[in-house]
Amino acid sequence: MRCAVRLALSAAIVLLLVVFILKEQLESVWHRNSISAYIHDALFDPWHNADINETALWDGRPEDKVIVMAKLEAENTDWVLDHLPDWRRAIYTVNPSNTTLSSPNQLITPINKGHESMAYLTYIIDHYSTLPSTIAFLHSHRSGFWHAWHTDTPMHDNVYAMRALQLPFVQANGYVNLRCNWNPGCNKRHLRNIHVTGQIWQEVFSGTSTSRFNLSASANNITGTSPADPEAMEKAIYSPPNVNVACCAQFAVSREQVLKRPVEDYIRFRRWVTETAESDAKSGRVMEFLWHVIFGKEAT
After folding, report:
1. Taking phi first (over 0 means left), then psi (-120 to 50 degrees means alpha), and beta for anything else, what does residue 19 get?
2. Mind listing the pLDDT tens digit for each residue in 50-74?
3. Which candidate, 131, 134, 120, 117, places its Cα nearest to that of 173?
4. Whole-angstrom distance, CA of residue 202 vs CA of residue 45
5. For 257, which of 6, 174, 234, 281 could close a Cys bridge (C-beta 3.0–4.6 Å)?
6. pTM
7. Which residues contact 80 (CB under 8 A, 6 or more apart)?
């Protein structure tokens, strides 16, 4: 009996220690995944218990807006047409089968690298002169607690996100991150971005129209350059100390914002993703933390 009590107490103490050690991490995950809101919406949100196949006030013609996404061959993206028929669609298969490759109606990326960034950049490059007013860049999964936790809407549902998207706000701001929750990406633990180093920043933005180092500022911010060395200064680009943004590469931009950069910039960005020694995952993560900069926002 005494042995059993001791074992129970020991187990309880160990459990409490584990909970105490993991408390911060568990709280972060709870907040990151909006678990409280998810449970509430699953139980009480009438929107998800209603028929959402109809789009109010839609005349049957795709409007001046497009959804761009990357998908794997096996992924089903019919939900875009079924529930968002008022949006044009540009859905790229990143690992096309021979059947997909032989179909003239299927969009494919030049290479399967950089996660969704390859599809995003390919769309901009190929449609630079004919862009619609609003471009929404989304992931291929519609919803789901595990797959779409980063979609900051009831039930993590991208149909809800697109229905709620305020197009005039996108036009006024140029770039709008579709995630409002700052975790992950902007909380204290993520202030030091391990993905976008100074070297990576230089590799991505070198040779683009990204603002060059301000000659009136301290040249010490760029190693080995000085205002007296204009050639070196021209090649150098100031790397900010912090690069932070709410994850996870789902956002909307206006045509005018995209056109503030020449198409050559987007070609260079795609070339970096293609040619960098960084892996598929790492190069995609780098781009995830740079879209807001590419589209005119401050680094942090």
Report:
1. alpha
2. 444 445 555 567 789 999 999 999 9
3. 134
4. 46
5. 174
6. 0.80
7. 67, 69, 87, 89, 91
